[in-house]
Structures are given as structure tokens and as C-alpha cells.
């Protein structure tokens, strides 16, 4: 058990204190609310009290620390702290137990226990002790000098090749089984069940039936990635040897198709005339009636034309806009201005005129 | 060498239109008398970022020359810059001078100044065609009707009358002197 939290009373302030040397923690939990004479403390007094108590606590900790047995180091004294007793809460949740692999499940049902194997084995042929796995191992298949032909062997077959191929098959089978186990674990327990090295992998396993969608790379994505990688060399992949059957990299960039150089059956002529028409039409202003345009522009600028009421107003209007008024249709329905003119007359009309002048 | 595609053609024709106006039709539908049967028209071809105005028969012959060996053909109108814009060069002067709409004639005293690449001042202005708008493309001639170059009118014809003698009337774009000054860039 870790060293107990020492609880003791300090002079100078009431209450219990806890000391945990492992965490270098000293804590006092009661709030000094009342003075010794029983009245409540103010803020300033409380601050003073806190500072005082803090000093005392730190003093206690330092005293305890310096009284511990220490060794001398070149930088100074070295104290080994005891194990911490104050339990800090977990930062992350507890890891879930990994689901069993297929073999583990089978072994459990059958009651097969794991056997501890020795590192060295006696090699009968060479009569010496050799490793079980690794360099110069027992029964290394590369070391076999002669393989005798069996009754069932065909004359053209290479037994050494067969050995190598069978080894590859076994390795491949094992890898497949491992992958299946991982997939099953991920399906059952989610991503957390996988070993952390796999969790960090950029593309998560595509788990069939699982909640998370797998980020499968499509054929095109792979092709693009391969193309990018192949051009990421010093000479943009131009002089690299290609694998047999590897297609040259897809040319990037917009595909542009041009007319043939010589006489594309009048298509070029067509293009020229079309573009010419467009250019001429854009810049051709012969259809424009300048006067009409000026009138339209003036109307737009001044807002809606006001109703012509009374000779004075008309004169004023004429003074304002000159000839453009003549072209305008008599405004039956007009804007806000005209309503004043309609109702009022005389003095009021005069007032309106003043305001409009403004 | 390849024909122009639509956006490129639009750019070229718009630039030409600035100088020749509605005569663009004549330029494009000009019959050529080269070739064995004396028929055919003129086309545009792009070669090494330069646009050429060539007769059809000549294009056929030019296909026999390899791409890197071919220096040019017909009349070079101008070149496409790295950012895709089209600029007219002095080599198209003959063509646009023949079909120009707006012209400026220079006094003999101002000819040399223009041929060195300076803009045309009011003091050097001899004649100018009527109703030339501001920033209209103009072809610049000497008094003896020899085309010297082309540029852009800085002021319209009416405004030209009110200018100081040292004000710019036409902005220089290309002149014959470039054949000597910028020989390698043509």
C-alpha cells in the first residue's frame, strides 16, 4: 500500500491537513471564515489569512522533505519520494478488453494451455545446439543440401521451389488470419479494440457490418496516388524503369482539340465568320437613337416625373429639365410629389414649391 | 502550327477591329492569288505563340517544314503573351494600314520622334480623320502617306483642337523603328 496520507494539525490555523509526499501535496480543507473572537472575516482579512496559512503549509512540506533520507548527487541532494497516496482520477476511460482471436477461443473450449518453449534445440544432424528461430536455426529449410525424390514426384518439378512456395503460402495464410482477427475485434469492440498502431493508420479497416464506414480507396484513387508517387522524383519520373505491364502516367491538364492545320472542310471559315459577326455586332452602334437614349437617361436620373399642375409649376419644370419634358407623356399616375400639387393651391402650393426647390 | 480556337480568334479579331473597324470583313474575305489555281482565302495560324495571317495555299506548303525549323509564314499579326493576352506587333502594319479607318498624319518634324518610340504630341500633328473617338485605334502616316506605325488616340478629334502643343495626341504602340530596335523580338 502506498504511504498513508498524513493528517495532522498545524499550529497557527485550525483544521486538518493532508500531506502526500509522493505528489508533493499539502492540503488544508477548511475555509477560515471566523476570526478567533467569533466574528466573520472580511475579504481583505481572509486574503491575509490565506497567505499566512499557505506559508505554514509549505513550511511543513519543505521540513518533511528536507528531513527525508537523501543521497548526494553531483547536482545536489537527491531524495527518493515515497509512492503517492492521493489518487488522481483517470484521464481516459479504462481500455476495453480485447476480444479473443479465433485460436484463443478454440483453445479455451478445448482446454489447450500455452506451452513455454525453450530457446535452444538440439539439432540431430549437426549434433549441436541451435536456436529454435532466427539465424542458423534448427531445421532451416534453406540449409537442406539434397532433397531425395519421392515416389510421387514428377521429373520436371523443383522441390526447393516447392518448399519456398509452401512457406509463402503459410505466411500469407497467417497474415490473412491475423487480418480477420483484427476485423472481428474492430467489429465487436469498435476502434478501441484494435492495437494502437493500427488505430493510428490513415485508412481504417473497412469493417463489413460495423457502424463506422470504411474509407476504401477506389481504383481511381489508387491510380491517382500511384501517378503522383511516380512523378515525385527528381526528374519527374521520366527516366524511371517501368514495371512490365505498367501503363504510362495519365496526362494531366485540360484536353484541347483543335481544327486540322489544312482546310478543315470549311469549319475554320465558319468559325471565322461567326467570330467576325460577333465582334462587329458588339461594336456596332448604328441602331442607337441618340435622342431617345438621352431622354431615357434623364428620366432615369431625376426619378418619376411629377404631374404638371398650374402654370407656375410647369414653368418651373421647364426651367429644370428643358426640352426633355416635351417628350414625356402627360403623367396621369405620378409619384408622391403630385399629390401635394393636386390638393393644394395658392399658399399651400407656394409652400410645396419651396420644398421642391430645396 | 495550328488554327486558332474560338477565344483566341475573338481576341485577334477584336484587336484588328480596333484599327480597321467594319473593314474587318474585307480583311477576312480577301481573296488570295497565290497557289496553283489562284483561288483561296486567308487564314490565321498559330505557331509558337505568334499569330500569322497566311494564304491558304501557303499554309499547305508550310506543312512540309518541321515545327522547330519553321520560323514564320505569311504576315505575323502579333503574339500571345504568357498570360494569354494578344498584342499586335509592327509586322501587321501593312495589313491594317491598307484597311484603316482612322488615321493620323504627322508633320515631318515629328516623324523621327515617333520612329524612336515616343508618343505623338499636338505640335507634331498634321492631320487627323474626323470623328475619331478617344482611345480609338489609329494608324499613323507621314505626310507622304507612308504608314509609320500605329497607336491609340489619346483624345478625340474635337478635344485635339483645344490642346496645348505639348499634350499627347496619340499613344505609341508600334512603329517602323522597331524593326531596328527590337529585331530579335519580332
Automatic annotation (TrEMBL), chain A:
* Matching Pfam families: RRS1
Q: Which GO terms describe its cellular component?
A: nucleolus; preribosome, large subunit precursor
Q: What is its main location?
A: nucleus
Q: Where is the composition biased (Basic and acidic residues)?
A: 349-358
Question: Could you tell me where this protein is found in the cell?
Answer: Nucleus
Q: Entry's InterPro entries?
A: Ribosom_reg
Note the superkingdom of the native organism.
Eukaryota
Which residue ranges are recorded for the region named Disordered?
295-358
| Keyword match Nucleus | yes
What is the role of the protein in this entry?
Involved in ribosomal large subunit assembly.
Q: Which PANTHER family match?
A: RIBOSOME BIOGENESIS REGULATORY PROTEIN (PTHR17602), RIBOSOME BIOGENESIS REGULATORY PROTEIN HOMOLOG (PTHR17602:SF4)
Kindly provide the name given to this protein in its UniProt entry: Ribosome biogenesis regulatory protein
Instruction: Write down the species.
Output: Physcomitrium patens (Spreading-leaved earth moss)
Gene name per UniProt: LOC112280370
Automatic annotation (TrEMBL), chain B:
Alphabetized Pfam families for the sequence? pre-PUA_NIP7 (PF17833), UPF0113 (PF03657)
Top-rank taxon:
Eukaryota
- PUA domain location is 102-177
Q: What one GO molecular function would you report for this record?
A: RNA binding
Task: Please provide the record's keywords in A-Z order.
Answer: Nucleus, Ribosome biogenesis, RNA-binding
Cellular location of this protein? Nucleus, Nucleolus
Question: Which CDD domains does the record associate with it?
Answer: Nip7_N_euk, PUA_Nip7-like
Q: Which GO terms describe its cellular component?
A: nucleolus; preribosome, large subunit precursor
**One of this protein's GO BP terms?**
ribosome assembly
Q: Which Gene3D superfamilies match?
A: 3.10.450.220, PUA domain
UniProt main location, coarse: nucleus
PROSITE patterns per record? PUA
| InterPro entries in UniProt | NIP7_N (IPR040598), Nip7_N_euk (IPR055359), PUA (IPR002478), PUA-like_sf (IPR015947), PUA_sf (IPR036974), Ribosomal_synth_fac_NIP7 (IPR016686), UPF0113_PUA (IPR005155)
In the record, the note on similarity to other proteins reads: Belongs to the NIP7 family.
Q: How does it assemble?
A: Interacts with pre-ribosome complex.
Protein purpose: Required for proper 27S pre-rRNA processing and 60S ribosome subunit assembly.
**Protein name per UniProt:** 60S ribosome subunit biogenesis protein NIP7 homolog
Organism phylogeny: Eukaryota, Viridiplantae, Streptophyta, Embryophyta, Bryophyta
Amino acid at each position: 500500500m502506498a504511504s498513508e496520507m498524513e493528517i495532522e494539525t498545524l499550529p497557527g490555523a485550525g483544521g486538518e491537513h493532508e500531506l502526500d509526499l509522493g505528489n508533493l501535496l499539502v492540503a488544508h480543507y477548511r475555509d477560515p471564515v471566523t476570526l478567533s473572537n467569533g466574528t466573520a472575516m472580511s475579504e481583505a482579512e481572509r486574503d491575509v489569512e490565506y497567505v499566512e496559512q499557505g506559508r505554514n503549509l509549505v513550511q511543513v512540506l519543505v521540513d518533511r522533505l528536507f528531513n527525508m533520507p537523501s543521497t548526494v548527487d553531483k547536482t545536489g541532494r537527491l531524495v527518493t519520494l515515497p509512492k503517492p497516496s492521493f489518487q488522481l482520477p483517470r484521464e481516459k476511460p479504462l481500455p476495453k478488453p480485447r476480444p479473443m482471436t479465433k485460436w484463443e477461443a478454440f483453445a479455451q473450449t478445448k482446454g489447450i494451455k500455452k506451452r513455454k518453449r525453450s530457446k535452444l534445440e538440439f539439432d540431430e544432424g549437426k549434433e549441436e545446439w541451435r536456436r529454435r528461430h532466427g539465424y542458423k536455426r534448427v531445421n532451416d529449410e534453406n540449409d537442406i543440401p539434397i532433397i531425395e525424390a519421392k515416389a510421387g514426384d514428377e521429373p520436371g518439378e523443383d522441390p526447393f521451389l516447392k518448399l519456398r512456395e509452401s512457406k509463402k503460402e503459410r505466411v500469407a495464410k497467417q497474415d490473412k488470419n491475423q487480418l480477420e482477427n483484427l476485423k472481428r475485434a474492430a467489429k465487436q469492440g469498435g476502434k478501441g479494440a484494435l492495437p494502437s498502431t493500427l488505430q493510428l493508420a490513415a485508412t481504417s479497416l473497412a469493417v463489413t457490418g460495423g457502424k463506422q464506414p470504411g474509407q476504401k480507396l477506389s481504383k481511381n484513387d489508387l491510380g491517382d496516388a500511384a501517378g503522383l508517387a511516380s512523378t515525385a522524383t527528381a526528374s519527374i519520373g521520366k527516366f524511371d524503369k517501368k514495371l512490365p505491364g505498367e501503363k504510362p502516367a495519365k496526362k494531366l491538364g485540360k484536353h484541347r482539340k483543335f481544327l486540322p492545320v489544312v482546310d478543315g472542310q470549311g469549319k475554320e471559315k465558319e468559325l471565322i465568320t461567326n467570330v467576325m459577326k460577333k465582334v462587329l455586332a458588339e461594336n456596332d452602334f448604328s441602331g442607337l437613337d441618340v435622342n431617345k437614349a438621352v431622354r431615357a437617361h434623364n428620366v432615369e436620373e431625376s426619378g418619376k416625373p411629377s404631374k404638371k399642375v398650374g402654370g407656375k409649376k410647369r414653368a418651373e419644370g421647364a426651367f429644370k429639365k428643358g426640352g426633355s419634358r416635351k417628350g414625356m407623356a402627360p403623367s396621369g399616375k405620378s409619384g408622391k410629389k403630385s399629390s401635394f400639387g393636386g390638393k393644394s393651391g395658392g399658399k399651400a402650393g407656394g409652400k410645396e414649391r419651396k420644398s421642391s426647390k430645396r | 502550327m495550328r488554327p486558332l480556337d474560338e477565344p483566341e480568334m475573338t481576341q485577334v479579331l477584336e484587336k484588328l477591329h480596333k484599327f480597321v473597324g467594319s473593314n474587318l470583313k474585307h480583311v477576312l474575305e480577301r481573296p488570295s492569288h497565290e497557289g496553283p489555281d489562284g483561288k483561296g482565302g486567308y487564314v490565321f495560324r498559330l505557331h509558337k505563340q505568334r499569330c500569322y495571317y497566311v494564304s491558304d495555299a501557303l499554309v499547305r506548303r508550310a506543312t512540309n517544314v518541321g515545327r522547330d525549323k519553321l520560323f514564320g509564314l505569311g504576315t505575323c499579326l502579333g503574339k500571345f503573351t504568357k498570360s494569354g493576352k494578344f498584342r499586335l506587333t509592327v509586322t501587321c502594319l501593312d495589313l491594317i494600314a491598307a484597311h484603316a479607318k482612322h488615321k493620323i498624319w504627322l508633320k515631318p518634324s515629328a516623324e523621327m520622334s515617333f520612329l524612336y518610340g515616343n508618343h505623338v504630341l499636338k505640335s507634331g500633328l498634321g492631320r487627323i480623320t474626323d470623328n475619331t473617338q478617344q482611345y480609338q485605334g489609329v494608324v499613323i502616316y507621314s505626310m507622304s502617306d507612308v504608314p509609320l506605325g500605329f497607336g491609340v488616340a489619346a483624345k478625340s478629334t474635337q478635344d485635339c483642337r483645344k490642346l496645348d502643343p505639348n499634350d499627347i495626341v496619340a499613344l505609341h504602340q508600334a512603329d517602323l523603328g522597331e524593326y531596328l530596335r527590337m529585331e530579335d523580338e519580332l
